[in-house]
Amino acid sequence: MTNEKTTRELVYETNRDVKWICRALQRMEEWDATGRRAGA
Fold this sequence. Notes:
The chain is mostly helical. The protein is 70% helix and 0% strand. The protein is built from 1 helix and no strands. The longest helix has 28 residues, at 7-34. The radius of gyration is 16 Å and the shape is rod-shaped.
């Protein structure tokens, strides 16, 4: 067995990361819209 990941694993991880980034951007946009900032 090698430590290389299969295409399926890479696709899964990429999709997960993209969803996380989209949620983070959405939160930032909401903060901008309401005049709030992270940690405020």
